[in-house]
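Table S7 (text form). Paired inputs.
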Amino acid sequence: MVEIYVLRLGHRPGRDKRVTTHVGLVARSFGANGIVIGDVVDESVARSLRKVVDLWGGPFEVIMGVNSVEYVKKWKSRGIVVHLTMYGLHVDNVIDEIRGSGKDLLVVVGAEKVPRIFYELADYNVAIGHQPHSEVAALAVFLDRYYKGEELHRKFSGAKLTVVPTPRGKKVLRIGDRESRERGAQGGQAR
């Protein structure tokens, strides 16, 4: 089975906590196996993501502080490197080829200006669109196209919480908690 990791480049701990956390949340919920925060350690982002995994299930790995260039170079012996950039080839023109390779993927997502070496090291520079856009949105669209929407039906192992879809309101059940299941079955909100 193909493994997909997301490498977050250029994370600035004092400025990017929320966006990097959202990159991690999208990576997890849209089918990636983990996030790699390159070149820095930010325990607050790691704690937030690990808490989500603890409550909502996994597996999902959080790796920090690796040398981004070296990590990409090493990954190339394992699989494909996809750099998401508005300057790349349109996703619709390359997604079948990427998916068809059957190789593990490292999806590179930048925060600030991405150094030229990542454009050169990438096997694919992929654009979701050729206009300025959010890296969070680009990652979501890429993973959704890669998995053809199947990732949205994924069940996460080890989850303590699960959402019960409702037309209005919110219903969250604790898995394994009989009282919550019974309240949920009766239409009450369980937390």
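Next pair, protein 2 of 2.
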Amino acid sequence: MSDVKARPSKLKFKGEKSKKKRKRDDDDEGRSGSSKRRDEEDSDTWVVPDDAVEIRGPTFILHPSDPSPITVNYNATSGKIVLYSVDKDDSADGEPIKLLDRTPTDVAQVWVVTRVAGSPTINIRTGTGEGKFLSCDKFGLVSADRDARGPQEEWTPVVFPDGMVAFMNMYEKYLSVDEVAGGTLQLRGDSEEVGFRERFWVKIQYKYKKEANEEVKKKKEGAAGPAAADEETANKLYQTWGAGRTVLSKDDKKELKQAKKEGRLAEALLERRAKLKSDRFC
């Protein structure tokens, strides 16, 4: 895979103030604008993905560590990954916020997930700073200091029935939370199996989940039946050689035209293709 430079992008959090818009005088337009704002708010809601293909766009990664759940952050100043305890983040009434109700409160907690169309692997880059990619080397060392993506920056997300996610690297090892000397926690990428340390909660924005499901639906609908055969395109596909030159006699054209009327164009083209191959190699 060729290296691709990351492109920084500005992230917007739920509840962040937007620029004021001109107030509409017409009541209908006002209601329409209000409905649109509600739709936009719903689109930015953070949700748990049900399938690996839904993991895309701004992504919030948490681990249910005991006794302190943690979020996976990136410190743009030091260029280091930081595992931050969320124990002291309480709600207004003093009650602890449930783990799955938590949403990012700082851009350092947000990663941006991208993927090549049709690929099961994803790239995870920082949502702040220069846009560094999360990578893992063959020794299991995890970092976020790469400007471009390659094999070591590819991860395969695995979604379990309970909704938790494991991330497998190119060496078929799993990302995990590991305790080192002094009780410090860090990310490693050398786990052979998936256990508690390798399971994360992942939250994405609803609009990206919806977008992924719409793409899957379109693919399924496209695969529901054979595509309609276009005579000119089909002719060039099955009947050409030598710089794309179409080779059809007058009788061939007449035969294919009749086959099209009878609804057996694809069958006739395959027969012509077999005949042409036979003629060429006799």
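Helices lie at 27-43, 206-222, 231-239, 250-261, 265-281.
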